[in-house]
UniProtKB/TrEMBL annotation:
InterPro entries: CofD, CofD-like_dom_sf, Gluconeogen_factor. Required for morphogenesis under gluconeogenic growth conditions. It comes from the Bacteria. This is Putative gluconeogenesis factor. It comes from Vagococcus allomyrinae. Keywords: Cytoplasm. It is found in: Cytoplasm.
């Protein structure tokens, strides 16, 4: 592994959902050149509604990443992240940031351009790129041969997923990576996958053929941050090794170098099922299976409990990432 002493290490983080901003906030406080590559396959909630009505790429995950990397005052961030009440008729459940991204995308004719402009306005420390400049549709093929289309529909029937793939939402062309995405991956010292939903936050990015090939062929360290909990309709009964097996199957390559695994136990009955109803039980460990896949395993207490939910402790994870990227012994 390379050692970097003079320049900032280039770290690319790929994913979506609520886990990605946790890691980005920790990275922002360290000396690194950060690039976030964010999924554009979300079709639920405010993002899904705007995607259909304004014909804009789903803005929700991009909004959260911008906020995580921005140094704007707390009041501005709170306003950007503010979500209207469900009683507010046509504004119900929309966040201000989603509306701003949609407006700028319409003004500039491009979500990509809107995100670059907002990055400057919000003093974002790093680069934020949608995985593709077109909205994508995520498709799942289940082990029984049936299919489902749309990120929000895949987990409904709780069938075992065989594989997923993506298509453009507005044409039949092959999905392409957004500008600068491939260059960022090729120049990265480290590529971080997750934390986030395996099938609906991480794989939609890697299923863009250009991105998948670039990650699999990367000379940088590829790190997977394994989820702490299994997810209903996605990773039920999964071990940490099962996550890696799915990633390797989709890219037809044993491309993950290092896996970060939480070993701290979640207290029984801690999670609030009314808020976090998609999470089931803690992911089981299969360290031999991880090693058989060619992975270095870093197991530690990465757990943060707050607000009735289970999260990764961003500071602890980032500490490990920097030990890796600087080649420290541990």
């Amino acid at each position: 592994m390379k050692t970097y002493r003079i320049r900032k290490p280039k770290i690319v983080v790929i994913g979506g959902g609520t886990g990605l901003p946790v890691i980005l906030k920790g990275l922002r406080n360290e000396s690194a050149e950060i690039t976030a590559i964010v999924t554009v396959a979300d079709d639920g909630g405010s993002s899904g509604s705007l995607r259909e009505s304004v014909k804009v790429s789903p803005p929700g995950d991009l909004r959260n990443v911008l906020a995580a990397l921005s140094d704007m005052p707390k009041l501005y961030e709170d306003l950007f992240q503010y979500r209207f009440n469900k009683e507010d008729e046509f504004l119900a459940n929309h966040s201000v940031g989603n509306l701003i991204i949609a407006a700028l995308a319409e003004m500039r004719g491009s979500t990509y351009e809107a995100i670059q402009l907002l990055s400057r306005i919000m003093h974002v420390d790093g680069h934020v790129y949608p995985a593709s400049e077109s909205s994508l549709v995520l498709h799942a093929v289940f082990e029984d041969g049936s299919k489902a289309s749309g990120e929000s529909k895949i987990a409904i029937d709780r069938k075992t997923i065989d594989y997923v793939y993506v298509t453009n939402s507005d044409n039949d062309e092959q999905p392409r990576a957004a500008r600068k995405v491939i260059t960022a991956i090729e120049e990265a010292d480290m590529i971080v996958l997750g934390p986030g939903s395996l099938y609906t936050s991480i794989l939609p990015n890697l299923m863009i053929e250009e991105i998948g090939k670039a990650v699999a062929n990367s000379q940088g360290e590829v790190v997977y941050i394994c989820n702490i909990m299994t997810q209903k309709g996605e990773t039920e009964h999964f071990t940490d090794a099962n996550h890696i097996q799915v990633l390797n199957k989709h890219l037809n390559s044993d491309f993950v170098n290092t896996v970060l695994v939480n070993t701290e136990k979640v207290p029984e009955g801690y999670m609030d099922p009314d808020i976090y109803d998609e999470y089931l039980v803690q992911v089981k460990h299969d360290f031999q299976g991880l090693r058989d896949a060619g992975c270095r395993v870093i197991s530690a207490d990465f757990l943060e409990l707050r607000d009735g939910g289970v999260f990764h402790d961003g500071d602890k994870v980032v500490d490990e990432l920097f030990r890796l990227v600087f080649g420290a012994k541990y």
